[in-house]
Amino acid sequence: MAHFVLFVLLFAGQVIGGFSTQRLPPSNNGNLITILSVDGGGIKGIIPATVLIHLDKALKAKDPNADLAHYFDVIGGTSTGGLITAMLAAPSPDDPTRGAFTPAKIVEFYKKNGPHIFNESRPGNGPQFDGEFLHNITRELLKDTRLSQTLTNVVIPSFDMKTQKPVIFSNYKLENAPYLNALLSDIGISTSAAPTVLPPYYFVNDGVEFNMIDGAVAAGNPTRVTVSEVLQQNEDSEILVLSLGTGTVNSSDISGIDLINAASAAMTEYYLASLFVGFKVGKTYLRIEEYNLNPDSNNMVNVTKENLDALEEIGKKLLKKNVVKLNLDTFDLEHLGETNAQALDRIADILHGERQRRLKRKSMEKRGRPFVETLRVLSDKTQASAAILRNLLI
Predict the structure, then answer these.
(1) Mean pLDDT across the stretch 119-130?
(2) Burial of 360 by CB count in 10 Å (0-12 exposed, 13-18 middle, 19+ buried)?
(3) Tens-place pLDDT, residues 304-316
(4) Phi-psi category of residue 368: left, alpha or beta, with phi > 0 → left and psi -120 to 50 → alpha
(5) H or E element: which one contains 324?
(6) Partner of 76 at 20 to 30 A CA spacing, among 69, 82, 111, 215?
């Protein structure tokens, strides 16, 4: 009996140990690959961060210890979305198994530090701002964390002015391009160096020079880049994508670079909608974006208290709006029958279920042995111990 109890305790300990693991087990333990992607947009990053608060709460309702980095196989972000990615995926100095920031803390970060980052009293030599505060606060927050040390895979695009090529800082690339294993702070500063707004950023890693500007030059919406990185590694996998925008203005008055950016954004959404055509929107691909943003709030460096509060409110109201789907023939936006909040709740169900499946499968394996074989080995050992004990007692 004593050995049977010991067996039960050992078995329970293995199962509980498997379920208490924080990092999301690899996708080969599950049924699909989960992706979160966040657009660029300066201080407008408050909008997607506010949307993520809802998802974070929905997951915590199922698991009080939930952390977004534990539920997504990869998080992609450009510019301000790259900073959000880094803050979600970097390990906390207080608990290295958890992300440095929750979505709620990211909103607080923007509202507290935005006025210092985009401070008119600190002009740059050419760009609008000198960038010193952003550089310092990013290094302070992310410390010595490198790309290889993130809690989950990340994909953060930037652009090298000297080589005239995009640079994609991705965990998936580290095996073939180890020089990309830069400090997360250098990566975050690089992807945020918006031309005319913040200065270019120069750094050296592993003997390689980087002369970087904002990733939005190559990919304002990083979802396509992130999905491409995943497909290169997992060609036949089922994919779930949550793509968050920072808001666009619905106006026929835009021209110049704004018109080019709008056209590029539309084509990116067309590509993604085409890629996932045939799947139920919200289950495999969900894009949450405010398509009718107030022009005053569209200014990515507007850091007045009124606008910071307005951006947070926009994010909250966006949750109550219906899911929008792009019509592949007309490029018109079609409103579906559920709200963004309801769609996020369904995604939370999917994410939680996927994580539980992976943890269960992981707990059923010991040193690569199937669960049934593990049970047999443990049972044989228990029976042998019981026989020895009986012989000693006779």
Answers:
(1) 86
(2) middle
(3) 999 999 999 999 9
(4) left
(5) strand 322-326
(6) 111
CA distance linking residue 102 with residue 87, whole number of Å:
8
Other C-beta atoms within 10 Å of 332: how many? 9
CA atoms of 256 and 245, how far apart (whole Å): 21
- Closest CA relative to residue 151, chosen from 196, 110, 100: 100
Measured between alpha carbons, how far is residue 22 from residues 91, 96, 355, 358, 390 in Å? 12, 10, 10, 12, 41
Q: How far apart are CA 310 and CA 151, in angstroms?
A: 32
Contact 213, 193 (CB under 8 A): yes
Q: Per the structure block, which two tokens stand in for 81?
A: 């979305």
From the number of C-beta atoms within 10 Å of its C-beta (0-12, 13-18, 19+), residue 337 rates as: exposed
Structure tokens at 56: 């974070």
CA nearest to 276, candidates 330, 231, 220: 231
Residues with Cβ < 8 Å from 250, sequence gap 6 or more?
291, 292, 293
Active site residues per annotation:
79, 214
The pLDDT score that the predictor gives to residue 268 is: 83
CB 51 within 8 A of CB 288: yes
Q: Alpha-carbon distance 46 to 48, whole Å?
A: 6
Give residue 325's pLDDT. Answer: 86
Question: How much is the pTM?
Answer: 0.85
Q: How many CB atoms lie within 10 A of CB 126?
A: 10
Contacts of 289 (CB under 8 A, 6+ apart): 244, 245, 247, 248, 324
- As a 3-state breakdown, the chain gives helix, strand, coil percent values, each rounded to 5, of 50, 15, 30
Q: Which helix (H) or strand (E) holds 209?
A: strand 208-213
- Residue written as token pair 């293995």: 14
Q: Give the closest residue to 51 by CA, choosing from 378, 358, 321.
A: 321
Q: What is the reported pLDDT for 94?
A: 93
The alpha carbon dihedral of 150, 153, 157, 160 has a sign of positive
